[in-house]
TrEMBL record:
GO-annotated molecular function: SH3 domain binding
Pfam family, one: PH_12
Annotated protein name in UniProt: ELMO domain-containing protein
CDD domains documented for this protein: PH_ELMO1_CED-12
Localization annotation: Cytoplasm; Membrane
GO cellular component annotations of the record: cytoplasm; membrane
Membrane-crossing residue ranges in chain numbering: 409-432
Keywords carried by this UniProt record: Apoptosis, Cytoplasm, Membrane, Phagocytosis, Phosphoprotein, SH3-binding, Transmembrane, Transmembrane helix
Length: 684
């Protein structure tokens, strides 16, 4: 007979004594259980004690969190959070250096516990830590532990960041600006400044006065990726809170050289921070892209005058108004604008709006010789061979915004910092050909980006290789392959094969679920990562899952997974923003990467098992497998890709004997019936 649901069997440790094995009744008050445990070891004053987990983060157990205790859990009897906070507060203010260091080290560890943090903060502990930092007398490990404890305590959101003093901000900023500072101190200082900026509008202005993006760029050039990550996170925070007229990206070269093209693989948190920076930067481009030019705005018209001045070297304008208008009209025609009289009208369509004019001015100023050469070459051509710089630049900008999905935040990271350079290069590379070749240009860019070049130079080389003749060759090859597979007999064969291939994919997905996968629990990036494992039983009837101390190597035995869900109890599978854990954590809604990897299993009565896949492949495997278990269609991108690949391979294998044989569109006609069925075959 299984034990009652309210009873959990646990072991409780105490230093220097044998562990107690008890059956904890979850209906009894926690204080009563602690009193009973203390009596077992003859300890008086049970109100001065509490229970903590012996493994992992070793959090205190409260009435609210006791429901998470599982059978077989090892607990530890410890002094209560209030008593621990009081003792640590006294020790960190003692005169003994060694005693203070040990106290700060223990405080840094305990501060992650919300129960302890509440008690310590209620005793004005944060103010004490702030004064220790402001005094400037702590260095090395002692300062690192102080900053760690301060940051962990503030992360609980119990007190407001607005209470932080200006002297504290100056001290923290000083650690960031120092050329030689301990790595652990620098990392925590960057994290504290980031939290200040994100959590308080008033503190943003104070931090911005002490720290600039230019000062943070130096931290991108170090070899420590953790420092780089925290520096980019602070840049993102300053970018996000800055007024619109002060938002700019000035860290392109260090980011590309030392982070994106560095020798080390980019970790998940770094990739997320780069993604956030990409989103913030593209918000600026999107604004320019969707801004129409005001023909009556003199400042905007001056940009067009500047384009004309640079192209024609400030030639002396005629004195007469009519002659001047005629010359301007002629010049604007040579520059390739559609509206020769008022070129401002060319920029009233969005997209690309003012972004196209920005790019034209960038090319004219940064590569002036190239710009002048293009315009002068065009001025000597006949009308039918015109090379319209203006129209091509506008169309190319619009095309690139569409291909790179500006405003939808899908741009690959490497191109984030080179959009202007990319458009400049495309303008020169295409030699500003007329509009009829724009479709070829689009195909060149799309195919080159699909090859995932790691730098702008690689992109240039791939574009050079995709010349017009190569595009025609690729088109013809694809067309021939497509035509072969569009005939009715081939389509019928494909329809017959598809159910077999889908069943094969389904079995592969279920086999992968039986092997299981490790998932990361969502939490604060500064704390140790937590993992849990989930796998399907071999008979496909039960999902087994449980927590792990670290990421496993290989399969995890079913015996180590303490929890399970019968497949028959599963009601549905939801993904993305429909997942309960995505609705609960509002901060995660801004993380598109996490949102795209989230899915949840809803099961009876009203419970959920929430997942965040480690990558897109595992996301597709698990969502497909769970849908297969429920008898639903597998609709992931991976299934579509696998289906196309396997069907194509199977059909090619079956059609090997028909190579170079034309397959008729219709079956051969059925011959007429014989006039008589009275015939035999002579075997002699």
């Amino acid at each position: 007979m299984p034990p009652p649901a309210d009873i959990v069997k646990v072991a409780i440790e105490w230093p220097g004594a044998n562990a107690q094995l008890i059956e904890m009744d979850q209906k009894r008050p926690l204080s009563s259980i602690i009193r009973e445990v203390c009596d077992g070891w003859s300890l008086s004053g049970s109100e001065q004690f509490a229970l903590r987990y012996a493994d992992g983060p070793q959090l205190y157990i409260t009435e609210q969190s006791r429901g998470e205790i599982k059978n077989g859990t090892i607990l530890r009897l410890a002094i209560s959070p209030a008593r621990a906070a009081r003792q640590l507060l006294e020790r960190i203010q003692s005169h003994g250096i060694d005693a203070r260091l040990e106290a700060l080290k223990e405080l840094a560890k305990l501060s992650a516990d919300p129960t302890f943090a509440t008690e310590f903060i209620n005793m004005e502990g944060i103010g004490t830590l702030a004064r220790l930092v402001e005094s400037g007398t702590h260095f090395g490990e002692m300062l690192a532990f102080t900053l760690t404890a301060f940051l962990e305590l503030m992360d609980h959101g119990i007190v407001s960041w607005d209470l932080i003093s200006l002297s504290f901000i100056k001290q923290i900023a000083g650690y960031v600006n120092q050329p030689m500072v301990d790595v652990s101190i620098l990392q925590r200082s960057l994290a504290i400044l980031e939290s200040m900026v994100l959590n308080s509008h008033s503190l943003y202005h104070r931090v911005a006065q002490e720290i600039t993006v230019g000062q943070l760029i130096g931290h991108l050039q170090v070899s420590n990726q953790e420092i780089q990550t925290y520096a980019i996170a602070l840049i993102n925070a300053l970018f996000l809170k800055a007024p619109e007229d002060r938002r700019q990206v000035s860290a392109q070269h260090p980011l590309h050289t030392h982070v994106i093209r560095g020798n080390r693989p980019i970790k998940a948190e770094m990739a997320h921070q780069l993604y956030v920076l990409q989103v913030l930067t593209f918000n600026l481009l999107e604004e320019r892209m969707m801004t129409k030019m005001d023909p009556n705005d003199q400042a905007q018209r001056d940009i067009i005058f500047e384009l004309r001045r640079i192209a024609f070297d400030g030639e002396n304008d005629p004195t007469g108004t009519e002659k001047r208008k005629a010359m301007y009209t002629k010049d604007y025609k040579m520059l390739g604008f559609t509206n020769h009289v008022n070129p401002a009208m060319d920029f009233t369509q969005t997209p690309p709006g003012m972004l196209a004019l920005d790019n034209m001015l960038y090319l004219a100023k940064v590569h002036q010789d190239t710009y002048i050469r293009i315009v002068l070459e065009n001025s000597s051509r006949e009308d039918k061979h015109e090379c319209p710089f203006g129209r091509c630049a506008i169309e190319l900008t619009r095309m690139l915004c569409e291909i790179l999905q500006v405003g939808e935040f899908q741009l690959p990271i490497i191109f984030l910092f080179y959009l202007y350079s990319l458009i400049e290069f495309i303008c020169v590379y295409v030699c500003l050909k007329p509009e009829q070749v724009m479709q070829v240009v689009r195909e060149q860019i799309t195919r080159a980006l699909a090859m995932k070049p790691s730098s702008l130079d690689q992109l240039k080389n791939k574009l050079r290789g995709l010349n017009y003749s190569e595009i025609l060759r690729l088109r013809q090859s694809e067309r021939m392959s497509q035509d072969d597979f569009q005939s009715p007999p081939i389509i019928e064969l494909r329809e017959r094969i598809q159910p077999e291939i889908l069943e094969l994919i389904k079995q592969q997905r279920l086999n992968r679920l039986c092997e299981g996968s490790c998932f990361r629990k969502l939490g604060n990036r500064r704390r140790q990562e937590k993992f849990w494992f989930c796998r399907l039983s071999l008979n496909h009837k039960v999902l087994h899952y449980g927590d792990l101390d670290e990421s496993p190597q290989g399969e995890v035995p079913f015996e180590l997974l303490s929890d399970k869900i019968p497949v028959s109890d599963i009601k549905s599978v939801v993904t993305g923003k429909d997942c309960p854990h995505m609705k609960e954590k509002s901060a995660l809604k801004q993380n598109k990467e996490v949102l795209e990897l989230a899915f949840s299993v809803l099961y009876d009565p009203d419970e959920t098992l929430n997942f965040v896949a480690p990558n897109k492949y595992e996301y597709c495997i698990w969502t497909d497998g769970l849908c297969a278990l429920l008898g639903r269609e597998m609709g992931s991108d991976l299934t579509r890709s696998d289906l196309d690949t396997l069907i194509s391979m199977e059909m090619k294998l079956r059609l090997l004997d028909l190579e170079n044989i034309t397959i008729p569109e219709a079956p051969p006609p059925v011959p007429k019936e014989p006039s008589s069925y009275n015939f035999t075959y002579n075997y002699s």
